[in-house]
Amino acid sequence: MIKIINFKDNRVCKILGTEYPLTQGGMAWVANAELASAVSNAGGLGIIAAAATPKNILEQEIIKAKKLLKPGKNFGLNIMLMSPTADDALQVAYEQKIPIVTTGAGSPGKVLEKLKPIGTKVIPVIASVAQARRVEKQGADAVIAEGMEAGGHIGELTTMVLTPQIVDAVKIPVITAGGIADGRGIAAAFVLGAEGVQLGTRFICCEECTVHENYKKAVLEARDRSTAVTGYKLGHPVRCLRNKLTAEFERLENINAPAEQIEALGTGKLRAAVVDGDTEWGSLMSGQSAAMVNNILPAEEIIKNIFAQAEKILNAN
Question: pLDDT of 173-226, one tens digit each?
């Protein structure tokens, strides 16, 4: 029988300093101070996405999150290493003494080197066994094994096959991401050997999430085949909800359009979706789990409900 509610021995909770072994995905333009603090206050680990945010704006978000946090709660920062502002985000994490940093889209070596000495826990998002082994050797505290069901930038392997292979390959704790939106997904992750989960898409439809209502509505209306993956030609595949933008990406890729033309098409499109509510030409980054999201609830209610469901499933026998 697997116990997941009394987390006294859960390594992920000990690393994160949380009640639940849950991290919120570092979604660019979505994961801001309001969302991160709401998830952290509800017992998980909220994460602010640095993305390509200018240094001064990122600092303001971190200060805001600290003011919104309840006493004793942690939050984290996600640094996308391919971003042109990654070095600035790293410096902010150092100056602000961010307790948890997740990384993606690149080698976390410089992040580990700079932040580990000040006590920051560094947890890279990885998509293969080789990546997991490499970051463990570099000193990562845990890994987030993200399957291709996830929204945004993705790898090649599904969560179902990636998770157990990563669990077998490393000794540090494994947090599973990609395709998880309810307690059934959490239960499956634990059965596969993970010690924690990361949810992104589910928190788009969270009361505290500040994305445009059109974006939330699009997620709520999503079905099993509502997402598309574009960007294979560029080597950076991205999963989003299907719309006119994804159709144009697919058209350009099919005719082997120049990379510069394809990249230009995506400029500013995430902001268009999140801020302006453009559901036709905006980039509606979302995982396949959108099909399982059917309501908008406070973060606290979402987290309590899904872990209660997971506990019921795992303790059924």
Answer: 999 999 999 999 999 999 999 999 999 999 999 999 999 999 999 999 999 999
**What pTM, to 2 d.p., does this model score?**
0.91
Q: How many CA atoms lie within 13 A of 314 on its CB side?
A: 23
Contact 262, 249 (CB under 8 A): yes
Neighbouring C-beta atoms of residue 304, cutoff 10 Å: 15
pLDDT in tens, 154-182: 888 999 999 999 999 999 999 999 999 99
Which string of DSSP letters, residue by residue, matches 260-293?
HHHHHHHTTHHHHHHTT--TTTS--B--GGGGG-
User: Rg of the chain's alpha carbons, rounded to an integer?
Assistant: 18
DSSP string for 80-117: ETTSTTHHHHHHHHHHTT-SEEEEESS--HHHHHHHGG
User: Could you tell me if 68 and 91 are in contact, meaning their C-beta atoms sit under 8 angstroms apart?
Assistant: no
Whole-angstrom distance, CA of residue 286 vs CA of residue 298 = 19
